[in-house]
Each structure stands twice: as C-alpha cells, then as structure tokens.
C-alpha cells in the first residue's frame, strides 16, 4: 500500500453520509507543520487552538473537539504517533489529559522518511486529503488555515479512482438549466458571450456521494457558491434561501448580497428541468449549513 492509499484509508466515524473530517484536518495541519518546521513534534497544548479553529471552520456543524483525532489517528497504519512526559502512547482523547501530560504528536517516522525522500509526496498527500473530504471551493481556505503551500502539487490518480467519474456535462447542464443566472442573486455576467463568475455548485458534495446531476446542482455566482460550501447559505425543503445566524457583516453591500437573501425563493430552473432534490438539501442542512438560520429578511 502506498502513502496516498494510507491517508485515504484512515478509519473515520461514519453514519448515513455524516461528515467526520477530524483526522484529515489533523493530517493536513501536520503536513503544514512538517513543510514549515520539519519533523518537530507538535505539542497538543500549543496546537489545540489552531486545530479547533480548523475544525470549527471546515468541520461539520456539531460540537466536537480535536482531542479525538490527536489520540485515535495513532491507531491507523504508520501515520501518526503520540507520546507524553511519561513515555510513548497517548493518555486518551480527553483534551484535559492531553494537556496535563504534555502530549506531543508527530508524523510517523516512516512517513517523514518518505517525505524527506520524495519532495513531491507532501503535495500529493495534501491534494488527496482535500479532494476526498472537502468541496473544491474550500481547498485554498483549508490550506491557508493549515499553513500549507501546495503550488504546483499534483492530484494523485488514486484519488479519482475512489470517487465517481466526473461528468464533464454537469457544469453546462446546470448553468443552462438556470438560464446562466445565479439562482440566489440573478447575476448573469458574460465576457464575449461566455459566462464568467458562474459555477455549477454541488449541493451534496462529490466527496460525500453527491452525484453530477442537475438535481444536485445550482447555478451560483462565485461568491454564493463559496458561501454555500462554507455553510453561510443554505436551503429549506421549500427551496428558500437560509442565512446562518452566525454570519456577521456591517457593510451595506454585505446586507444586499447576503443578509437580504434570507427567506428569498431560489430561482427555479427552466421548465422541465429538475429542481434540487430534497435529500441533497437535507444533507447540506445537516452536514454543512451553520445553524440556526436567521429570520427571513423583511
């Protein structure tokens, strides 16, 4: 088994399509630390705030903590190890125990040896983790938060083999279904007759069994696509736009582009084209949207 297969094969808690990217986020953080500082150990107490921020920003919208992956990742195949002042081994997943024993984690020596031997391996591993666990619009944000520089890094072939083949017709099908207009704000920019700033957004992410089908897609401008994937925006079963109560902005432009969307109906597709399926909306509401939602705009 190669290293890409190993990081893609980490054991994760799963139930009915729920997201649990705790271990991938810890690995991305550790790869960023290795890129900056080499194989130095990562004290839990020093990294805890940064790890929690990663989980809060890019994890599921439910309360949890990063003590779980810091402890449990060591059980996976030669990826991570933990020791304390008392010797090798983790004291458990409780953050208090990890702090009091001055627990330190590090990438497994076999992995760091492989990273030292192949400078391109780090980029391949990080790209694999991103593609398998996060919507593409979030990849740059995750990298910035994890301290990773992946300029020029390639996506391993092994990743695409684990996901359904991409349908090249998906983007055109979705944009055409919505008349090349953002389903949230009606933006319809063209440059020399070609749509610019418009995306075919997956409501249920491909990495979580979201199909390349119009019934899982929305034509969105680049801003609203990114906000949908970050959980700022969502949908009700009646296909009205929701805005997270946690979103804050003071500029009039932000009110116009985001806050005023609350309660607004999603622009429907053209006659005969499928609307977004209720199951995909429910997945996004449970796994991505940052509840509670704001009251509908007046």
Automatic annotation (TrEMBL):
Keyword field contains Nuclease: yes
Transmembrane segments: none
Residues in HNH nuclease domain copies: 182-235
CDD domains: HNHc (cd00085)
Single annotated GO MF: endonuclease activity
Stored InterPro entries: DNA-SBD_ScoMcrA (IPR058813), HNH_nuc (IPR003615), PT_DNA_restrict (IPR011396)
Ranges of compositional bias, category Low complexity: 87-96
Top-level taxon of the source organism: Bacteria
Positions of region (Disordered): 81-103
Segments forming domain ScoMcrA-like DNA sulfur-binding: 4-149
NCBIfam families the record matches: PT-DNA_restrict (NF045808)
Protein name as it appears in the record: Putative restriction endonuclease
Organism lineage string: Bacteria, Bacillati, Actinomycetota, Actinomycetes, Streptosporangiales
